Amino acid sequence: MNSEVPELDGVHHVKLPVTDLERSRAWYQSRLGYERVMEFRDGENIIGLLMSHPRGGPALGLWLDPERAAALAGFDYFAFGAPNRKALEKLASRLTALGERHPGVHPGAIGWVLPHVKDPDGHELRFQCAT
């Protein structure tokens, strides 16, 4: 191993710009099980939320920034990991039952993928596993 390469330890958190904090909080909670941990304020106004996932998902920051949210809509700039295909299939079924449109689980370049899930701001979410 090259000792000049900095040591890193996974993803600490993912931060998404959103147009409506409460709407996005409710969506990530109801669809993926995220829970609110902390609020960030600018005086009286809540401008951001930190959310955690009880079963291994990365910490998720939601930040009130409508202009950036609109600019990034439709791009899948990260993928949530899943332990296996069965977990992806279960998630796909849950999303379908909640009225979310997606193409289902299918083979990806590596393993299996559930792509094209859109959050309320149109951020494209991708879920992937190696097995």
Structural write-up:
The protein is 24% helix and 35% strand. The chain is α/β, with parallel strands linked by helices. The chain has a single domain, classed as 2,3-Dihydroxybiphenyl 1,2-Dioxygenase, domain 1. The strands form 2 sheets. The chain has a 4-stranded mixed sheet with strand order 1-4-3-2. It is globular, with a radius of gyration of 16 Å. The two termini are 27 Å apart.
How many distinct folded domains? 1
Instruction: Characterize the overall form.
Output: globular
Number of strands: 8
| N- to C-terminal distance | 27 Å
Strand order of the largest sheet: 1-4-3-2
SSE sequence, one letter per element:
EHEEEHEHEEE
Global Rg: 16 Å
Helix content: 10-25%
Main beta sheet strand tally, sense and closure: 4 strands, mixed
Q: What fold name goes in the CATH topology slot? A: 2,3-Dihydroxybiphenyl 1,2-Dioxygenase, domain 1
CATH level 1 class label: Alpha Beta
CATH homologous superfamily caption: 2,3-Dihydroxybiphenyl 1,2-Dioxygenase, domain 1
Low-pLDDT stretches: none
β-strand amount: 35-45%
What structural class is derived from the secondary structure elements?
A: alpha/beta
Q: Quickly give the CATH architecture.
A: Roll
How much is the average pLDDT?
95
Task: Count helical runs.
Answer: 3
